[in-house]
Specification:
By secondary structure, the chain is mainly alpha-helical. The protein has one domain. It is 45% helix and 3% strand. Strands 1-2 form a two-stranded antiparallel ribbon. Strand 1 and strand 2 form a beta hairpin. Helix 2 runs antiparallel to helix 6. The longest helix has 20 residues. The chain is globular and about 40 Å long.
Length: 128
C-alpha cells in the first residue's frame, strides 16, 4: 500500500513542479540570469533623487499627479506608475523618455539611465 501511495505522489510531482515553477511576476524572463538584478533601493531611488524627482515633485508631502516615489511601496502603489515586466506600460518609464511628460520640467536622462529604469521594470521591478 505504501508503494502505490508513493507512486501516486511521483505521478503528481511533474504537475507540482510545473505549477511552482510557473509562479512569477513576469510571463517570461526578460533578462538572462547571469546579469545582476537592478534594485529599486540600490539603483532606481538614487537615480530619481539625482534628478530631483522625489524631493521636489513626487514625495509624501507633494505627490504631484498622485504619484509618490518616496519609497518602493509608494512607487508600486501609485496608479500605473510601474507595470512589472512592461516598461512601455509604465508611466515612470514613458514619462521620462524624450518628448515625455517630464521633459517640460527639465528632467533629462542619459541613455544609460533610461536603460537602467527599463531593465529594472523588465526584471519585474524588484526591491532587492
Amino acid at each position: 500500500m505504501k508503494r502505490s501511495a508513493s507512486l501516486g505522489f511521483l505521478a503528481f510531482l511533474p504537475v507540482l513542479l510545473l505549477l511552482v515553477g510557473g509562479i512569477d511576476q513576469c510571463d517570461e524572463p526578460c533578462i538572462p540570469e547571469e546579469y545582476p538584478m537592478v534594485s529599486y533601493r540600490l539603483d532606481i531611488v538614487t537615480l530619481l533623487e539625482d534628478h530631483s524627482c522625489i524631493y521636489w515633485c513626487h514625495c509624501d508631502s507633494n505627490a504631484s499627479g498622485g504619484v509618490n516615489l518616496s519609497s518602493y511601496d509608494d512607487t508600486m502603489d501609485s496608479r500605473g506608475v510601474v507595470s512589472p515586466c512592461h516598461p512601455e506600460s509604465s508611466s515612470l518609464y514613458t514619462s521620462l523618455l524624450p518628448g515625455g511628460a517630464m521633459e517640460e520640467y527639465g528632467v533629462e536622462m542619459t541613455t544609460q539611465e533610461f536603460a537602467l529604469i527599463r531593465t529594472w521594470i523588465e526584471e519585474g521591478a524588484q526591491d532587492l
